[in-house]
Amino acid sequence: MYGLVWTARFTRSAKKFTERHGELRTKFADILRDLENDPFQPHLKYHHLVGKLKGVQAISITDSYRITLTVVISDKEIILLDVGSHDEVYR
């Protein structure tokens, strides 16, 4: 299992995300649980980002919404950075 580290930015964006998208609250919680168990599960669509976000990874909540994160394999930690729409998290 991996430990999830909630940054201040992620905490704020997660609160806004769940307030705006109440219908995705359960799915969001399930995705975080799956991420904690194994971030490389195929349904999470884990992928590395390029360009100005090089060094950051992302997973999908739905086709429209993403979570950006950094995985620290040696410490078995996942540092959660942001959650939102494709355009919001890749800005």
Structure description:
33% of the residues lie in helices and 30% in strands. With 91 residues, the protein is α+β, with helices and mostly antiparallel strands. The protein has a single domain, classed as RelE-like (YaeB-like fold), CATH 3.30.2310.20. The chain has a five-stranded mixed sheet. Strand 3 (57-60) and strand 4 form a beta hairpin. It starts with a strand and ends with a helix.
Shape type? globular
In CATH, the topology is named YaeB-like fold
Count of beta strands? 5
CATH class: Alpha Beta
Share of residues in strands: 25-35%
Structural domain tally: 1
**SSE series:** EHHEEEEH
In DSSP terms (H or I, runs of 4 or more residues), the helix count works out at: 3
Comma- or semicolon-separated keywords:
91 residues; alpha+beta; YaeB-like fold; globular
Outline of the structure:
By secondary structure, the protein is an alpha+beta fold.
Secondary-structure map with pairings?
Layout: E1 3-6, H1 8-20, H2 25-37, E2 47-48, E3 57-60, E4 65-72, E5 77-85, H3 86-89
Parallel strand pairs: 1-5
Antiparallel strand pairs: 2-3, 3-4, 4-5
